[in-house]
Task: structure prediction
Amino acid sequence: MARKALVALELQRQSIIVARSFVLQGFSTQRTGLDLDEVNHVVDPRIADLVPKFLAARRDDVAILRELVSQDAFGDIERHGHRMAGSGASFGFPSISLIGLRIERAAQRSDGEGVLSAVWWLEDYLDAIKLVRPPGEAQSGP
Result:
């Protein structure tokens, strides 16, 4: 099977797993109509220094995307969503990749409401993330 097809199948599998995890974790807020408590995320120690910067950039994306929707800048929105879809899983956040894909697809349809819906999911997900060390790794600090 061609590499491109394998990648597409893997992304589809991850999307299904992520969608199920939203339901199983009770992922929700008032805006999204779902119930989300805290999401513990075990950080890969090899990229631990990069993860907070990655998440801060996604928080910046929330404001940027809202502004772009108000300008009907769907080409720029599509590029933001595409980058998010590609980078989320690389940093250990397949949920962010899925949300980025939703943003990208909504932008392709010039669907501002669809973009904003996905941005709300992103914001709620970011608010719920709590980074934790892998089991067995020593905690530093007090």
Q: What stands out?
A: The chain has five helices and two strands. Confidence is low (pLDDT under 50) at residues 11-37.
